[in-house]
Amino acid sequence: MNGSAPSSSVLADLLAGNPTTASVVAKVINDVLSYSGFDSTLLTAQSNFEAQVEKTLFPVATAASSAGAADVQGVFHVVGLTQTQDGITYWGTVLAQGGKTLAAVAQTFVNNSPLKTLSDSDFINAIFQNSYERAPTSAESSSYLALLSGGSTRGDVVAQVIAALKGTVAAGDTTAQQHFQAATHVWQPGE
Predict the structure, then answer these.
(1) pLDDT, mean of each 10-residue run, the chain (191 residues)
(2) How far is residue 189's CA from residue 170's CA, in Å, rounded to a whole number?
(3) Is 34 left (phi over 0), alpha (psi -120 to 50) or beta?
(4) Cα dist. 20→6, 15, 24, 27 in Å?
(5) Which residue ranges does the record assign to the DUF4214 domain (predicted)?
(6) Angle formed by the axes of helices 63-79 and 120-131, to 10°?
(7) Where are the domains positioned within the chain?
(8) Which of 38, 107, 147, 186 has a CA positioned 20 to 30 A from the CA of residue 47?
């Protein structure tokens, strides 16, 4: 947190009494957040930590990206990537300003992920696990494979899965839909 390894005495102090990893992390965070002195290194660490927490809690950094943010968060979710503020802000702005379609943005994500190297069948299985939290039925798999063999891109398929999760889903998919909705909620400061 401070940009360097702790001294041996600080490390020994943190590890005294066989604490859990969680308790050590909690102590380090508490020490940084509750510091009220004048040490510039600790004040910088405190500021950087708070900025990182804000990026995590409030991933939409600009008003311009807000309109496209939920769709971008949906792409992150369906493709199985960890959301980043920079990604949500950049791609959310691109979507909001009409620079690209959701399918085109999704294709960019697919091209830059491990999904790129999968067969079409494995790709469909992977996005179903990420989004529906289950394997696709044979009918679902056949339908999406037909789209891909008919010229649709993987980004098109991701966009269709996002649209399906926003709509009415089968009773067995409601939990996955709730997880999708939670992953795509655009949190605003103070919410």
Answers:
(1) 77 85 85 83 82 64 72 96 88 92 97 95 98 97 98 98 96 96 80 61
(2) 34
(3) alpha
(4) 18, 9, 6, 11
(5) 116-159
(6) 120
(7) 8-57, 63-184
(8) 186
